[in-house]
């Protein structure tokens, strides 16, 4: 009897195990080449399904840029704080020129005294307003006299850097939204269905036109099927997804766990005669 890929209860696998199983199968396909296995019609779609399945397993809850965003905000907070503190201190300076410069700037900057406590987007707009006051033609001499030119330049630079990182967070949020749109149940069924189609083709060629590549592929695949079948049969899951459910009372495991509409190998005998891993 020809060596054939064994059947097992794929629906019993948890999501992570399912993704890992298909990733390993896809690696075997790449090694053997789709052409040698005669599955060119399915290989690209299967690879895509495997990659998407990996994405939903490894969905990242936190934002990568969160710390960088906080650091950038802290820099502009310090610039704002220093500028406001220096101007406030010089309002009582015994040096008339500096006191007058502080008195000129203080009322103009009064709307920006508490901006460090505002939300990110609001503060970004307010910092732009603060910078506009500091660089207004009527105020530049006073800013220079109080020695605040470096802090004013840093304020602009820090705000621009914050905006850049904020846009990176927006792009990251967009990618997260795409991942949230991926349904794990749908992806599991798609990957399992494509795998079954690949199995049918390879098993058919194993009967009528086998090759070393096909034989090696079947041997490797049957090896991991043994492992994953054993793992799925001995574990339980509280997940309510189809991919994680174990058969309920009145249902049988093994071969009956395969989707009923999946094609079977037609080798002249009735039904699917693949060996079943119990």
Overview of the structural elements:
This protein is mostly helical and 278 residues long. It has ten helices and no strands. The protein has helices spanning 15-32, 34-37, 40-57, 66-90, 96-109, 120-134, 140-145, 149-180, 184-208, 212-234. The longest helix is centred in the middle third of the chain and has 32 residues, at 149-180. The radius of gyration is 33 Å and the shape is rod-shaped.
Measured distance between first and last alpha carbons: 20 Å
Percent range for β-strand residues: under 5%
**Radius of gyration from the alpha-carbon trace, in angstroms:** 33 Å
Query: Describe the biggest sheet?
Result: none
Order of helices and strands: HHHHHHHHHH
SS field, number of helical segments: 10
**Share in helix:** 55-70%
In round numbers, the mean pLDDT is 81
Structural class: mainly alpha
What kind of assembly state do the chains in view correspond to? single chain
Shape: rod-shaped
Tell me how many strands there are: 0
Identify low-pLDDT runs: 234-278
